[in-house]
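Input (structure):
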């Protein structure tokens, strides 16, 4: 009796908390997004993840709500997040179905870093992943070939992840350390692909933008000096790409910063700009992205032409859409977006935030070890 009462009170508190968060996030239907709206949606997500994400995750974890679809149902605005979730259902809610679909197939796991394995934070140098997350990724990698594909430099993401049994690609896939030779896999015999990868050999680098490296270095130096006067602006060396962060820049200086970056790039026509989460990303204009990196890994793993492979890709950023598209066009695999707001995406499934990614990965590892 007391237990029931306690449970009801806790549930009410959480419901109240969640509705406050939903208000703060300002859910909007994705189908009616104009360019302007898309930008403000991104802004809302930033605010939500910065202020409310951790608190909400704490509450969900405290209740051990693995399937939170009920708690997330927005009754006052059924056309927004709830309808988006109908089109991009929770990968946790669908977990059993997804695993049924994976029987007899070889799962290969691809993970983005920022916003997926680690929460978005103000200081890019402090975007640490939790020990829990590291352990979950490690367990997954023992069961399935696993690669991290990040916009960061490969070295930096490796320093954050600190695992030796995963493959790494940095610079949005332009710096890959791939398996030295196709990995021979055991016949899955109708079971999940569970070839353990306990250690990683040195691998072979693949760097399709290598010839642009001297220009990247030049641009980096120029940008560092040109943006020095803008308080909060930060230039990050991502190997073959550069990030100019404006998360801590006063809003009235956004335009000035953007103009400076654009003026530098006028002298480097072979480079292009993309906007990420409060970051301008500069990269060589070559036809190579996270989707190509995914295909490259499959190729070097010796799995590319296999009809029964099942790539699972989890990511939260616009650059991850290229990988989602590849999975969609292969017609095999699970593209999963990490988002707490409706977004236009090629992903088929969703997870709200890194805390849900953690639960998903933990379940994935358990499923395999229980086979
Ligand atoms: O492909 P990713 O691994 O997701 O990398 C994309 C960018 O992630 C990082 O920036 C983002 O996360 C930071 C830390 O949470 C945050 O401060 C920043 O505002 C976000 O944009 C990274 O620092 C960038 O270089 C990557 O391009």
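Output (sequence):
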């Amino acid at each position: 009796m007391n237990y029931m009462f306690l449970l009801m009170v806790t549930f009410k508190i959480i419901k109240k908390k969640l509705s406050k968060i939903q208000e703060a996030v300002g859910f909007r239907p994705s189908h009616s997004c104009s360019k302007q709206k898309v930008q403000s949606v991104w802004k809302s997500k930033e605010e939500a993840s910065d202020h409310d994400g951790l608190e909400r995750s704490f509450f969900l974890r405290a209740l051990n709500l693995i399937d939170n679809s009920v708690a997330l149902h927005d009754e006052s605005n059924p056309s927004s997040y709830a309808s988006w979730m109908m089109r991009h259902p929770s990968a946790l809610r669908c977990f059993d179905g997804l695993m049924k679909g994976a029987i007899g197939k070889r799962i290969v796991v691809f993970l983005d870093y920022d916003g997926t394995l680690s929460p978005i934070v103000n200081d890019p140098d402090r975007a640490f992943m939790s020990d829990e997350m590291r352990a979950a990724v490690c367990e997954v990698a023992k069961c399935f070939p696993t690669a991290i594909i990040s916009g960061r430099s490969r070295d930096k993401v490796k320093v954050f992840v600190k695992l030796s049994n995963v493959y790494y690609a940095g610079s949005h896939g332009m710096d890959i350390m791939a398996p030295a030779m196709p990995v021979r896999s055991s016949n899955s015999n109708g079971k999940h692909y569970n070839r353990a990868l306990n250690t990683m050999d040195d691998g072979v680098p693949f760097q399709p933008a290598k010839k642009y490296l001297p220009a990247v270095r030049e641009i980096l130096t120029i940008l560092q000096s040109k943006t020095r006067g803008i308080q909060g602006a930060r230039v990050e060396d991502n190997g073959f790409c550069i990030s100019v962060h404006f998360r801590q820049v006063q809003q009235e200086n956004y335009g000035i910063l953007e103009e400076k970056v654009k003026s530098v790039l006028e002298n480097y026509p072979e480079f292009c700009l993309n906007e990420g989460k409060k970051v301008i990303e500069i990269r060589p204009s070559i036809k190579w992205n996270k989707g190509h990196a995914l295909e490259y890994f499959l190729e070097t793993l010796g799995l590319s032409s296999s009809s029964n492979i099942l790539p699972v890709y989890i990511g939260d950023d616009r650059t991850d859409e290229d990988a989602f598209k590849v999975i969609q066009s292969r017609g095999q695999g699970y593209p999963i977006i990490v988002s707490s707001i409706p977004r236009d995406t090629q992903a088929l499934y969703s997870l709200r935030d890194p805390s849900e990614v953690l639960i998903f990965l933990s379940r994935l590892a358990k499923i395999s070890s229980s086979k």
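Notes: Residues 112-115, 120-122, 124, 127, 150-152, 236, 238, 243, 245, 247, 276-279, 281, 317, 319 surround L263DTV3 (CB under 6 Å). The chain has two domains: 1-208+288-371, 211-284.
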